[in-house]
Records
---
Amino acid sequence: MPRPSTTAPNPAWTDPDCPVARTLDLVGDRWSLLVIRDAMDGARSFTEFQRRTGIARNILSDRLRKLSAHGLLARRTAPPGRRPEYVLTDSGRDLFPVLLALRQWGERHAFDPGEPHSTLVDEHGIRVPDITPIGTDGTRLDADSTHVRKTGRTV
């Protein structure tokens, strides 16, 4: 029998039992994901993030602080005379499949046919194949073949 929770749910969570909602609470705004995207593409400094995204300085400061506080980016000392750098942590790198799924959805649905867009390629210059969730039996998973199993929260 599960033990009752001894702590109340964190009121900062939109939906405390849902991993999707908690993830969106952490990185669900457009700027956070664009900062993570650019960190994956090699951006390290405040100036690089600002130049690549066009984000306002105050918003960028807030997002870098938030992403660092939640362990997605690590702030490290840069060489003397330079500002601090921000690097992805393992948690930040774990967002790669999320950004890949968003990119691939965008390639299919956010551009007109033939409209040019950037392409993600591997280390050999070959386009990254579409991701497809597969079940343990090898069948393709989608919204029609899966469901959420709710947890029983006791307070």
---
Amino acid sequence: MDDLGLVAWPPEPIRTERLVLRESEARDRAPFMELLASPQVHTYLGGPRRRDELERETPAVPERRPGSFVVDLDGSMIGLILLRRATGHRRPAAAGKADLGYLFLPRAWGHGYAAEACAAALGWFDGVLRGEPVVLTTQTANVGSMRLAAKLGFTEVERFEAWDAEQWLGMRPPPLRVAPRRDRST
């Protein structure tokens, strides 16, 4: 995995109580294009892409690259989780760190799927790249994304103006390692 270092890709599918995080497949092309063309999904992301443009540019198996997880519910794609190295990030506090991104189809909103899927992806990340923080950027106007960031353990690093809106940069520190206890009775 170029973006995140020497991590074997793709990993085995990650299973949660309700979801599977897996590598993209050909059957994901239509929901992938729906995701990128959705005005609701892209309200805080600069607007949707044009469907005809997506038809021309989307490969048969979309987003099949290291760090990309399809979020699958009952055999259908409902979202996408991205973990990438933020090498070109605009903010120095985020540069070079792993960056979490996520997109979900509107029909999947409000069910806790994003929290469940992001927590699973972060758990996987913590297992393969121990000791690394993760950053997340969202618009402050995106209240749902701000709530999710807090739920996942991200805390504010800074706010800044970009793309004609106030942006929020949060960081999630790596999990603390607890040293094994020594038996003091001997």
---
Amino acid sequence: MRIPAEQRREQLIAATVDLMRREGVQAVTVRAIAKEAHAPLATAHYCFNSKDEIMEAAAEAWLKNLSLFSNVAPIDLGLRKAVEQVAEGYWRALEEEPASILAEIEMILWATRNAPASPLAAKVYPAYVAELGNIFSSAAKNSSEECLMGFPMLVRSFLMIYDGAAIQYLTDPTGADHRTMFFTMVDALLAKSGV
């Protein structure tokens, strides 16, 4: 049975993401992706010109999934609660799916290493700033709160805290109370923001 090219592309993208989660970015080759997708190698080359093109498509798909998170954010409970619940969700994802978070970090670093050939590196954090900025600003607006920090800076600062905490957690999950330190830093950020 012949599979349409667009459907095959989606299978190859999903296979790339699964492979990255399970084995890391270093394991991603066109041959490994085709095998993971149960597709002929020639089909993978037909759908994508290179490994880099498949990686870009996988990263774009990953970023699109970011918007799914905004559907459950509690924007009616105020800015502090919204940030805390986003932090809870991020931390839960880290504990429940560490391989996914590690693969996401690897993908970002891959894109950064391959810049400027890979335009993805310049898209990652702006996508987070747009999505989380919308959540946080909506939460503040809904509760008539003021934030002493611009929302892009609040989001970037939150992500700096999370990224650092996530890397430390991934390197040694039982070595320290990473969760407490993460939420202490988030609390300090909110206090600095006047929330």
